Protein 1
Amino acid sequence: MDIKDTLTAAIQKAAADAIAEGVFPEGNLPPVVLEVPPKKEFGDFATNFAMQSARVFHQNPRKIAEEIAKRLSGDWLDHTQIAGPGFLNFYLKSNVLYDSFCKIYEAGESYGNLPPKTAPKIQVEYVSANPTGPLHVGHGRGAAAGSALVNLLRAAGYPVESEYYINDAGNQMNILADSVNARYLELLGENVEFPENGYHGADIIETAKRIIRKDGDKYLHMSEDERLTIFRDLAYKEKLAALKEDLAAFHVTFDKWFSERTLHPDAVRRVVEILKAKGDIYEKEGALWLRSTAYGDDKDRVVIRDNGVPTYLAADIAYHHDKYERGFDRLINIWGADHHGYICRVKAAMQALGHDPEKLTVLLLQMVSLYRGGELVKMSKRTGQSVTLNELMEEVGTDAARYFFLMRSLDSQLDFDLDLAKKKSNDNPVYYIQYAHARIASIFRQAKETELDAGDAPQFDKLTDEAEIALIKKIEEYPEEVEKAAADYAPQRIARYSYDLAGAFHSFYNKCRIVGVEPELAKARLALVTVTAHVIRHSLGILGVSAPDHM
């Protein structure tokens, strides 16, 4: 149990004791929220618990604070101060901070990883873009968020599996084949009308060119059906391989790639039959409808069209049924904000199948707007189409792209400043954090030259400067940040924490020398920066951002 847990338990016990003594009436206590005060003179920790509990105890907050303060005890507490309308400021004995930090130092590289949990077993499905063309910046935001969430949940101790759902069975695959076929014929001098709903990207032309470079006009004299079948397969394999390559360059990998094709026809037919047997599928105008209004949807939905072809919803029902059947306790999907209305119908279908719809959480991804020179960037300079993820990585780098995507919560619009992302200055937040790690690496190199080593038992009580104490406290907050961020599915908290930690380190660096001071102080400070480096690496690792030794 760390000091915040100890202090929280002591406050709760003090309130319970006051209730037992009849000082406070019975009631549901509010949670104890502890914060590190902005200034050292306000104590090591502070809480507004007395003000939050005033409506429960029907007493003046300062009176509540006084009653709690006089019932607090522990060999870790120096004294308590009541401030303002009822804030409780806690001053810990000096050895508490150092004893706690000693344990952090001894934990080494494992610090930041919470104890393993056996449950819940979580699956995170994200990106899942159609394999018909390159990923754009919107996909990039989802890729950064999804992979960071997986890293975060694993750091918090949860068993997690990541998955990409390959939309490779719908009409978009026919459109892909039609588009490649049209470009192929055009390049060979044939007079052809480009499909009205075809894919116009430059990548389609490149695919057709590659086919011609390899096989020439080999396919020209085939029937169109034969040619389309071949081009559908060739283009699909090429687009999927390119998609995987771009994601790998963006530090994104998946435990499982799930093909929609594997759901047709058997898995789709099975769920339709189950729903029929339950009375939740009915026929109207030749089509089969899901009675989704019985489960909270605003209208019933077609699952099998009147021509016998399944809708996208039918495949999604089969896919999510498969997820539940694989034994996951919690399913997390990251979808674009335009899929908001789709959530209810999928959950309705899951409930109709007998699954708990509350196990499915859908996080909606808001739009990304790119700005260069203060102007909105709408199109790719290279293709005239949407800016691709690959182009973004080329312009600002993978690290900056990932960090900027992760600075804001998924449900907020993101304005991405390309000029700021490329800056090599402290104005750029990812540069600011990485520079802290590079500075620490420089300290290690200097320490090695002077044969300075922190050793196994640094005297941490030598660290008394305000900048040192602030850095220690920021480091001690890290496991709680990981836990809270994981509970809220909020990797942006880790992005913010890593920035604040870098700020605490830069303040320390500008004030406290390491090489050249008295030996025991130098060892303690070197140990402090050793832990700082680890936490920077760990937090950036969750974000999928590198921690360089040189800048």
Note: The mean pLDDT is 95.
Protein 2
Amino acid sequence: MKKILLETSFSKIYMIIMVIITLLILGGYFSYAMFTVTKEKENAISIVTGNLTYKLLVDDKETNTLTVSANSRKDFIVTLTNPNNRVGRFNFYYEGSLPDGVDIGYIEKDGYNTPPTDTGINLEKVDSSGSSNKYIVRLANTTNKEISIDLGVSVGLDYNDLELPENGHLLRKIISTGTVKEVIEDDIMSRLNYDDPEQTFVRGANPYNYIWYSGKLWRVVSIDQSDNSTKLVTQWGISVIPYDDNSSAFAGSYMESWLNDTTVDGFLGNLREPEKFVKMDSKWNATQMFDSDTSKPPSEEEGGTIVEDAVGLLNVYEYSMSSGGNGFLHNRQNWWTLTPAEDFNGWPRLSYVYWTDGVMPSTYSQNAEAVRPSINLKPEIKIVDGDGSEDNPYRLEGDNDSNLEGTLLSTRYSGEYITFGTGENNLYRIVSHEMEGLTKISSAEPLKENGTFKKISFGDSVNYSSTNTIGSFLNGEYLTNYVGDKYNNMIEDNTTWYLGTVGDGASYKLAKYKDVNMSSLTTNTTIAKVGLLRLGELMSSQSDRYENNISYWTLTLFNSSSSRIIFDRTDSGSASSTGSYGIKPSLNLKSNVIITSGDGTLQNPFQIELSN
């Protein structure tokens, strides 16, 4: 810095200095010259001249290019250094419009600075040189090709100098916390479908819209613009049941009953604090539509069929508005929609999503398909963690527990993950707390042996027992070779397993009870340490997409000569007991099993032990 103090007339000296500076600039004396003129004292001015430079690193490399592969997201650590001997202002920008499906912005994180978009980044002079800061810049790419974005840096000595190129755009701040609506609208803004003024839909093949709530992975489907509630649907089928016997109407169906059953036998009764998180008076449009008609169904005022419930299903319009078979809702499984189709020769049918290509044919309501429950989160529910990816889903305030050491496992929620057993079969999930104080669990996927799904016949009878073929294996070799002594001691020795019959069009309740009124339990039971899940039970259809699955047995009879199986595409049919299918063991853990670490997610399952 040069300071020139002159005692002559301020106006004359000012004119002389400005002429000199102009001649120097025109002569190429400065490669990038900036100056300020300020009056320090009466009849005195201060002049600052010189080059203002910067150094930019991306993930510790001297570059300004951010590259992300197809259908992925990456957080880059960007380091900006001011090597000058004066204070400088800087700001990040990118040029041109972003491709559809690409978002870029910066996020806040402990230990990193957040670049403001209004006043620029102020890097102070430290002694004789400048300082440096680190920032996190996120680039999300939901297209099917690799994307590269070049960062630019605008520089200046004050805010007014931070001019951008004509087509330059400042990076926006990505909201890492806020209501679900705020985060979704800001975080995946390029993947939102605004064609419907009442519902803003998420679209595309792989948007970052995963939420972990109550032990289950969900996807954000849409935002209701009338009240800012957010519609979710589970990523995978949670169970499998016939829709109904002789009706395709949602109201009064087996499906409505299962979804909104507040007992241990249904879905709503196993959600965490639904009154706190879920919009209990949600309205579900269950209007009948013609086959292949994905247009918006009529509203209640227009004569549409509206059912008020806490839990429902997606209808065909909602599925199609989220890109249908080309979108994130197509999970390579068969699953029910809410939309009745045209009857066929008097037989009621409903639209469902077909596992191969995600199209929506129709099938008879008596058939058993996978269930993907849908809820609406209350508008005030906030996201407090996560980035919306499958491996790091958004976490909700009030459902983001930590420091669970010493907590009884019996207080936790259906769907949460547990490390249990040995080797490649050591991942389990909580099913329910069917027996007071106990925790029913089931393997997260059918058993494997050296990486291949194990198959076994049911036995010479459709009635499960600890002595038939599959029961003998589960209560013998399985406990020894798949579970081991440490975990074996945690299992309740005598569990009652219900062997009810659910044929075509029969209620899921008959798998456990004598009648649909649930007045008394079925008398067809057996007692064993290890059993299987029954049709309609939580987690009975919880498995990965078709390519990573196998058809497996349940406890439930289809008729007197065959048993219910869950197909690899997650619908249900029947098979002779002499057939050979996969196995998903189920068992009850004792009341004094406690959590020693973990948070119950797939990435960090609970570690457990017996308390003293």
Note: The radius of gyration is 31 Å.
